[in-house]
């Protein structure tokens, strides 16, 4: 029963993490223009994996989509691929987790369901690692440009989307690890049941190893003696009547 609760908790963690990772991909604020050293802010620049925008003081935003894939910077292409891979792995991991959980009626035997749940855990761990790598790579590019004294263009700071992606990645990794550890409990229980069956069979074979006539019951009564001497001894009071 504890392993079932562990799988349910792991499924909730991984599903929540996958939702956060999926919402990070189209989120706007991956990086936001820095206000360091500025007195009057007339516009805010922000960007994500798909477009770059500027918002003026009146709240009106003008955006420009990244038209060419090959003309993009290498880190943006890598982050796109890693985030899409994370979303796909999390989707397939959620399906395998539903099949492999003990509270569902599909998936076959307990051993097969444990293997499917472990495979789902590996999918979620890979999904979390992909998302974590994408967010960390993007953040590394932002910080390296910010602290570079030779970089004279617009400097940016970490946006809210990166923190959401990091949180979702950690949830996916934690839940996937719990799903992987659930297979150990299942195989431990099956091994203990097999040992119990083996000991029971061994004791049964030990009892049946006695030959006939030697295995006597403890409460077995001796057969009654119907000889003539016993009759005389039993009725000796009425002999002279």
TrEMBL record:
Entry membrane topology:
Multi-pass membrane protein
Compartments (UniProt record) = Cell junction, Tight junction; Cell membrane
Protein name in UniProt: Claudin
- Note one Pfam family from the annotation: PMP22_Claudin
Main localisation: other
Residue spans with biased composition (Polar residues)?
Answer: 216-230
Family according to the record: Belongs to the claudin family.
Q: Which terms does the record give in the GO molecular function aspect?
A: structural molecule activity
PANTHER family, A to Z: CLAUDIN
InterPro entries, per this entry?
Claudin, Claudin10, Claudin_CS, PMP22/EMP/MP20/Claudin
Describe the function of this protein: Claudins function as major constituents of the tight junction complexes that regulate the permeability of epithelia.
- What residue stretch is flagged as signal peptide? 1-23
Where does it sit, as one GO cellular component term? Answer: plasma membrane
Gene3D superfamilies documented for this protein:
1.20.140.150
Q: Where is this region: Disordered?
A: 208-230
- Transmembrane segments in this chain: where? 82-104, 116-139, 159-184
Q: Which keywords accompany this UniProt record?
A: Cell junction, Cell membrane, Membrane, Signal, Tight junction, Transmembrane, Transmembrane helix
Q: What is the lineage of its organism?
A: Eukaryota, Metazoa, Chordata, Craniata, Vertebrata
């Amino acid at each position: 029963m504890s392993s079932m609760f562990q799988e349910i908790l792991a499924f909730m963690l991984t599903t929540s993490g996958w939702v956060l990772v999926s919402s990070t991909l189209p989120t706007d604020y991956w990086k936001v223009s820095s206000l360091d050293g500025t007195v009057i802010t007339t516009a805010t620049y922000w960007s994500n994996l798909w477009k770059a925008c500027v918002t003026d003081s009146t709240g009106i935003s003008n955006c420009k989509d990244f038209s060419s894939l090959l003309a993009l910077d290498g880190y943006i292409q890598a982050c796109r691929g890693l985030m899409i891979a994370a979303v796909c792995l999390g989707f397939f991991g959620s399906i395998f987790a539903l099949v492999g959980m003990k509270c569902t009626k599909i998936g076959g035997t307990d051993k097969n369901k444990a293997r499917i749940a472990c495979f789902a855990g590996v999918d979620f761990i890979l999904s979390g690692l992909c998302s974590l790598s994408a967010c960390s790579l993007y953040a590394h590019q932002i910080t390296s440009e910010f602290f570079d004294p030779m970089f004279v263009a617009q400097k940016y700071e970490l946006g809210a989307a990166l923190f959401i992606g990091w949180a979702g990645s950690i949830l996916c990794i934690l839940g996937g690890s719990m799903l992987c550890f659930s297979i150990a409990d299942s195989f431990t229980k099956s091994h203990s049941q097999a040992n119990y069956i083996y000991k029971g069979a061994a004791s049964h074979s030990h009892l049946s190893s006695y030959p006939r006539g030697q295995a006597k019951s403890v409460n077995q009564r001796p057969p009654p003696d119907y000889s003539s001497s016993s009759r005389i001894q039993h009725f000796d009071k009425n002999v002279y009547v």
